[in-house]
Amino acid sequence: NYYDMAKWRGTWEFDGGAFMNQASHYIDIIQWLMGPVERVSFFTGTLARHIEAEDTGASIMKFRNGAMGVIQVTMLTYPKNWEGSITVIGEKGTVKIGGIAVNKIEKWEFSDYDDDDKLILESDYETKSVYGFGHIGYYKNVIDVLESKAEPETDGRSGRKSLELILAFYESAKKGKSIALPFDESN
Predict the structure, then answer these.
(1) Within 13 Å and on the Cβ side, how many CA atoms surround 171?
(2) What share of the chain is helix, strand, coil (3-state, %, to 5)?
(3) Which of 16, 88, 111, 174 is the most buried (most CB within 10 A)?
């Protein structure tokens, strides 16, 4: 168990819980897919793990473009983490990507056909690791940037957007009300 490996894990001061630690990449992806978030409501709990921070949470989000979304995270799956998934449902299409490393296209259906649809459905996304292929590409980009062969694919600003959203989640749970973004902790 991750949280049993060191006393600092699961603490507010050094680690955080399910959202700050394990779900931050999903937060990145949601904002990349859907755009900026306007408002959040968040519910959280420490239901079974012996940690300070949350082991389970759920957020309802309203995006600036008018879309709405939900993210649910728990560290209580039995016997171990078996999947993550992202589903986008719209009036002209539905996509669900799941699997152990969010590497399996479970649904890819649109009202209008695009030539890329066939390519996406026929591609091989099989992986044995929960980390999938993401870290390999990231490290390659870091090396290429250090060797002046490429520009960074991500930067601190995008990470800061995800941190801001997670902090707004926590503030919503703490105050028991929805929180508008951009979020300023001093308010």
Answers:
(1) 18
(2) 30, 25, 45
(3) 16
Domain boundaries, the chain: 2-77+159-180
Any long-range contacts for 11-15 (C-beta under 8 Å, 24+ apart)? 11/51, 11/52, 11/53, 12/52, 12/53, 15/53
Report which secondary-structure segment, H or E, holds 61.
strand 56-63
Q: Domain 2-77+159-180 belongs to what topology?
A: Dihydrodipicolinate Reductase; domain 2 (3.30.360)
List per-residue pLDDT tens for the chain, 187 residues long: 778 889 999 999 999 899 998 899 899 999 999 999 999 999 999 999 999 999 999 999 999 999 999 999 998 987 777 778 999 999 999 999 988 778 889 999 999 989 899 888 888 777 666 565 667 888 999 999 999 999 998 888 888 999 999 999 999 999 999 999 998 776 5
The span from the CA of 153 to the CA of 151, in Å, is 6
CA distance 149 to 174: 45
Residue carrying the six token digits 């699997």? 99
Task: Give the residues across from 57 on adjacent strands.
Answer: 44, 73
